[in-house]
Amino acid sequence: MGNVIKMNNKKTFDVHPLDGDFMIDTKTILTDCDGVLLNWRDAFDAWMMREKNIFAGGDVNLYDQAVRYDLPPEEIFDHIKQFNSSANMGFLPPLYDSVKYVKKLHEEHGYKFTVITSLSLNQFAIKLRIQNLHNIFGEHVFDEIVCLDTGADKDEILKQYAEWNPGAFWLEDKVKNAIEGRKHGLRSYLMKHVHIKTEDRDGIPVVANWKQLYEEITGS
User: Fold this and answer.
1) Which CATH number is correct for 2-39+93-218, 3.40.50.1000, 3.40.50.80, 3.20.20.30, 3.40.50.1820?
2) Does 155 have pLDDT greater than 80?
């Protein structure tokens, strides 16, 4: 089943074996979770309306939630941190056609996935994320689920994973992280969202869905 790796506030790795020894698969796809595998944004918007009676009244075409909600950055961050630590993390729906093509890549082509997500350091939230991913995609799809703190930068972890998996595919919905992955030699792709066209993606290719990524990876 792989391992869960958490980067703590001291920027050291805590490795929590779930089943078996730690191992990096040579046929690994690196992927973000929210906005790539799972539909975080719609779930967050619904939670904000239901629990906070707050609606996205800013520019909803942008990635920055402070701008989308027209709220101070520290206030929206508190809401995101609360949401990411809540029971909702066990029940986010899949994004687009992710289920079909993640399973095809795994079952028909032998790929496994390492998820790198800036979710939370809350142990219960991490367990719920694992449960959510396993329930939707299956337990054996993932080599690792790497949880960083809420909103944490991925620069250091991407550098490490690029050394372990040189030239691996890396799928993101945040332009900065896609560019950072490419800087370390990963083959970065961006999942299409409305905010992508508002940002300078520095030539990072965009896929409209998992079907397009599947075709890029398999050449079919």
Assistant:
1) 3.40.50.1000
2) yes
